[in-house]
Amino acid sequence: MSFFKNFNKGIFKENPVLVLLLGLCPTLAVSTSLDNALGMSAAVLFVLISANIIVSLIRNFTPEKVRIPVFIVIIATLVTIVDLSMQAFLPELSESLGMFIPLIVVNCIILGRAEAFASKNSLKDSVADALGMGVGFGVAIFLVSFFRQLLGTGEVSLFGVGISLPGLSSNPMAIFILPYGAFMVLGCLLATMRYLEVRKNG
Amino acid sequence: MSNKPSIKKELVPVLFLTIVVCIAVVALTLTNDATHQPIEDGKASATVALLSELFPEMTDYSLDDSTAIYVIKQDSDIVGYSFSTSGNGYGGAIDILVGINKTDFSEGNIILRGISIISQGETPGLGTKILEDPFLSQFQGLNTDNLALSQNGGHIDAITGATISSSAVTDAVSSSVAEKIDDLRQLNLEVS
User: Fold this and answer.
1) Which of B20, B32, B123 sits opposite A178 (nearest CB)?
2) What backbone torsions phi and psi does residue B27 show, to the nearest 5 degrees?
3) Which among A57, B161, B170, B171 is most buried, taking Cβ atoms within 10 Å?
4) Given CB atoms, is A74 within the 8 Å cutoff of chain B?
5) Residues B146-179: b if buried by 16+ CB within 10 A, e if exposed
6) Whole-structure pTM value
């Protein structure tokens, strides 16, 4: 498979969140604002790419018996590095993402890609796969956040710049900011993805 | 394939995992060294920022270690005291910084300078209104005798749709003042 094909599959055909239904926990929990979504996607993308690179590089020496513990040690180390760096240099973002940065360790997307893809494929393909999956996760969490922020607060903003809808911002549907709103938005997005896929494949 | 356990086969996975863990430990140690100081600095400057928000005239402060009360000074005069407390909100702990004006601390003469929220996990758009002014400013200059929600006979109006967050903050401030009052009186005598 070509680099582009490996990259592309993560975004639409095998989107980790919208098709494979992996990594739902952060997608539902931190998707209350676009800023959070961006921070979370960046953290996941970094961990995913680094983990895939390392796992792919050591794939020929890794003994079969201990491969899962090895992957987990690598992922946990990377996540801790991200967590500490965020606390040091982006304290506000770290505050609003809270517990969900350390929880990237148990995000199924990352261990899943390490085990299912990077441990069997070349460095180049693994990087493409990580980029695709990371961006796919980012797109999904961005979409969920966009609708939740828009409907739940009546305004959409990124880095403090944004627009507010006159009718909606004075009387927002706060349910979309609450956890069950996340499920409703995600459900509608999953249905849309399914509809597009069925229409495309006949 | 032979069924005899070969030493090499058994040992290689153990050694491999050990090496991976050692590399991870080194990487984490280096990261911790690089980030430890910025994290501490960030926390300290956040405290200073919060204190000077409550006491804009603050030029210096010191922390009384045994009671965890900040003494706020303007030049060499003490203008007030501050301490942190924690309430149980809708989304976990709400950490609050309480500012008290310097008075003689006699009964009925304990006046809040104001409060600010250090950290919270309340519902965005509802509970997070505890961070904003119609709610927060109610604490400014309030006599602690009146420190309760208006539905309980006090002077604090709760936020519509966020009664739990509102009462968590109010109750935490009220009980922490009651708890700290003896320390405050003691400290006030010692330092002035």
Assistant:
1) B123
2) -60, -45
3) B170
4) yes
5) ebebeeeebebebbeebebbbbbbbbbbbebbee
6) 0.75
CB contact under 8 A, A80 and B126: no
Cβ contact B183:B176 at 8 Å: no
CA distance to A32, A65, A115, B6, per residue, from A107 (Å): 19, 22, 13, 36
Asked if B124 lies within 8 A of A63 by C-beta distance, the reply is: no
Q: Residue B29's closest chain A neighbor by CA?
A: A81
Q: Any idea what the Cα angle at residue A139 is, between residues A1 and A112, rounded to 5°?
A: 55
Distance, C-alpha B141 to centroid of its chain: 21
Identify the three-state secondary structure at position A202: coil
For the stretch A130-186, pLDDT in tens is 999 999 999 999 999 999 988 888 878 787 777 777 777 777 787 888 888 999 999
Mean pLDDT along residues A36-62:
91
Are the beta carbons of B119 and A95 separated by less than 8 Å? yes
The pair of structure tokens assigned to A18 is: 């919208």
How far is Cα A21 from Cα A110, in angstroms, rounded to an integer? Answer: 13
Report, as an integer, the average pLDDT of A31-51. 90
- Neighbour-count burial for A90-112, b at 16+ CB within 10 Å, e otherwise: ebebbebbbebbeebbebebbbe
Q: What is the pLDDT along chain B (192 residues), one digit of tens a residue?
A: 556 667 878 888 899 999 999 999 999 999 999 999 988 888 878 878 888 888 888 788 888 878 888 888 888 888 888 888 999 988 888 898 888 888 877 777 788 888 888 888 787 777 888 888 888 888 888 887 878 888 887 788 888 888 888 999 999 998 888 888 888 888 888 776
What residues of chain A lie within 8 A of the CB of B12, using their CB? 63
- What are the boundaries of each domain within chain A? 3-201
Structure tokens at A198: 């069925």
Interface contact B126-A174, CB threshold 8 A: yes
Chain B touched by A81 (CB under 8 Å) = yes
Q: What is the ipTM of this complex?
A: 0.78
